[in-house]
Amino acid sequence: MDESGLTRRRLLGLAGVSLAASALVACTAPAETSPPVPAGPRTAPTAGATAAAPPVPARLTVRTSTGSFVSAFRPGSASHWSLAAPELPPGGAPPELPLAVFLHGLNSSHTVLLGDLAAHEALQRHLDAGGTPFAIAAVDGGNTWWHARADGSDTQSMLVKEFVPFLGSRGYDLGRIGLFGISMGGFGSLLLASQGRLPGVRAVAAMSPAVWDHYDPRLESAFDGPADFAANDVFALRPRLAALPKRIDCGAGDDLAATVRQYRADLPGDVEGGFRPGGHDYGYWRTVLPDVVSFLGYNLA
Fold it and tell me: I need a surface site. Which of 42, 75, 111, 251 has the fewest CB within 10 A?
């Protein structure tokens, strides 16, 4: 992408949009369903009798929750998180659900998962259509670009060493992890998947990832200098994604579209997603999210 005509403010603004004022969505009430027909002894049907219909499976309802913790990798900041997960029907040992970790964009927070993106609603539609049940979680990462910074913060290590293990302690399957994000978080998802620090990652998806093929001094909020850029160069790390299912989407009207096309062009292996009308905003990302959720569900099954 020809960046010469972009101002510093515009370059950094591309990496994320400010969080819209949206209230955190409360837990949804469970849907009313008919109880399953209890199993009984088998008897031969009498003449004219109609065979009983099989029990209707209980509807899985997505529940949301939030919390916070103090991270050793974000000095002086409380890290808040959001979670959307199917509430499993009672009876029997609950299975370990796969997990998708969402990384937010610049000037944003965990709240966009359940607010601007309404990911819990997309997950509910996925489940209602018979898709693989899984949970989606997000945590605050600040404006750190999801990697270690000169100021001592390291939100990638926070994800790997604190947040994901915490979710594992709640019963989620850390052998089946998906990564996805928007803008700065799209970059962060591709970076983490490429660097291989989470061995359970089964798929990665990036919506409008903020990626560049060379260092630009105007991107000092993203990198601490040329050496930091080289250590976190997602273009150079592309070969490491050869065997991993991946999906990359971008709005055709997004100023990042040119570099996203360039990044996609030399990715080894199949790449799902593509370009459709839209810009660098939540309106576009909400239209892509259902396909991203389906992609993650399929690869986490």
Answer: 42
